[in-house]
Amino acid sequence: MCNLYSNTTSQQAMRQLFQVSPEHDHLGNAEPLTAIYPNYSGPVVRLEENGERELVSLSWGFRTTSKSKKTGAIIKPAAWNNARDDKLTRAGLWRKSFINRRCLIPASSFCEAKGRNPATCFWFALKGSEPRPPFAFAGMWQLSRYETKEGPESAETYSVVTTTPNDIVRPIHPSRMPVILDPESYETWLNGNANAAQTLLRPYPAEKMEVVQQGEGLRADEGG
Fold it and tell me: Which sequence ranges are marked TM in the entry (predicted)?
């Protein structure tokens, strides 16, 4: 499960890579993000109603109302930050977003932890001529409506699609890894039908990835 990633790609580089024109960039003055956690905000590329690509900042994790099992009282909303690829068309939480609201999630590395007390963090990135070249996770977005202690709330949220791990991720996380899309697949993920999008849900080639950092409790801007 991916619970931490970074996006240190410059705003101009994101516009170029994801073919977003400046007038459709709504990030403001975006700063490099070395640690994005669930419930934090991150940049997302999605389609406007007219079909143009836009860059926006959304909150990571679809929200749903949560209640205490003991008292039935409303507690902190659940944040569903990962969506399994084998449940996208079957689970009600994901189905409509997978069919109608897919998005690209810009990233430069992601973290998986192994062990406990303390855990060792492994940061994965793509190989390239530059350190941690930019890429995109396959994602979905929605307007989440949920209840809190203070009453009903809503937020535009996104979730990362995960798949089975490849050979470099599996020793660290044996069951899941984020779906990483090649640039030539961006258009299909954003505009293709559900069947076409499903063909993209596969592990990224391990030989194109590397571990760029590892250590106890490392953020993406620390270590080697």
Answer: none
Structural domains in the chain, sorted by start: 5-65+79-142+158-216 (3.90.1680.10)
| pLDDT tens digits for range 160-208 | 999 999 999 999 999 999 999 999 999 999 999 999 999 999 999 999 9
Please give the angle made by the CA atoms of 207, 209 and 214, to the nearest 5 degrees: 130
Per DSSP, the residues of 62-130 read: EEEEEE-TTT--EEEEEEE-EEEGGGTTT-TTTHHHHHH-EEEEEESEEEEEESSSSPEEEEEEE--SS
H or E element at residue 224: none
- Cα 108 to Cα 33: distance, rounded to the nearest angstrom: 10
